[in-house]
Amino acid sequence: MQGEKIKxxxxxxxxxxxxxxxxxxxxxxGSCLTDVDGRRYLDFVSGLAVNALGHCHPAIxxxxxEQAGRLVHTSNIxxxxxxxxVAEKLSSMSGLERVFFCNSGAEANEAAIKLxxxxxxxxxxxxxxxxxxxxxxxxxxxxxxxxxxxQSKYQDGFQPLLEGFRHAVxxxxxxxxxxxxxxxxxxxxxxxxxxxxxxxxxxxxxxGLRRFCDDNSLLLIFDEVQSGLxxxxxxxAWQHYDVKPDIMTLAKALGGGLPIGAMLADEKxxxxxxxxxxxxxxxxxxVACAAAIAFLRVLEEEDILGNVCRMSAYLQDGLLGLSRDxxxxxxxxxxxxxxxxxxxxxxxxxxxxxESLKMGLLLNAIGDTTIRFLPPLNVTAAxxxxxxxxxxxxxxxxx
Length: 399
What we know:
The chain has 399 residues and is an alpha/beta fold.
């Protein structure tokens, strides 16, 4: 089917909730995608951090095909082997003893919110249900996670929002403490804010939050939906700070391209859930879990974390070069690992992304002046060089 026909059918039949860029992809391999006309694109969006090992990684593709030929779905009223193997591995990696499986980051965060409230009702008594989150955060599109999100642009038109969330200033411990009260049950935040603009937490801030939560019997929840599983150069971003959460949420990279989410919790928090308290029909599906097993094996066995650290330094050097070469247009960059943002001095991020697309590079604008980089964790130096060359031309052409 031709690209224009696909776009026509999409505009007619698909709910118009996305501002799509004008390209139709039909295949992908590694860091590259191919459109309906056979044109190659270098992908530095990675499905918004989902295709963490690029497109159609052979180990993940083989695992999906093999599992799909054996067993696709049973529901969670029965045991399946892939699910418990993923749970065992995630628990071993994180030190968090229990895992709940779902299908997305928003669902993982919903599960965390429910667990925090249930644990509070059991341990602290009724009326302890508020969760403090950060301004500029993003936790999902469901009503609870939308309310938890600290950005009004995602909430406009969906009021009244749910009760039970208070917002504080990211990296400001006193702001979080000031929002706590006799109804607080937990603090929830991203160690590295993603949709908010790629802002990393300060070590002192997270360490202070950990002490504050411990001193007040509050749960500390880390949303690692985007930052987790290698994106920052460690398995989990909190490992950079040596601040372990009580609850952690994962998704995106975990399935290597298939939808899967996970909420991990330590024993003291997880014990508040009983059978029937929470569920997911598709959560922990055998095929998605088989993909997750393959992804986690590659992450561990192929020095992916080492590559992230090396290529992050290489990409940051290149972005520093852009700042020096284009001082009138580029403000600088920030982030950690392969979760980086370039800040422009003029509001042309979307135009630069559109021009880069025309030249065969996929990037993501997360604001008028911010361009986000989420390349595959196994990206090469040659691919980074290609991307930087295209980006420099695109910036020069639209400023």
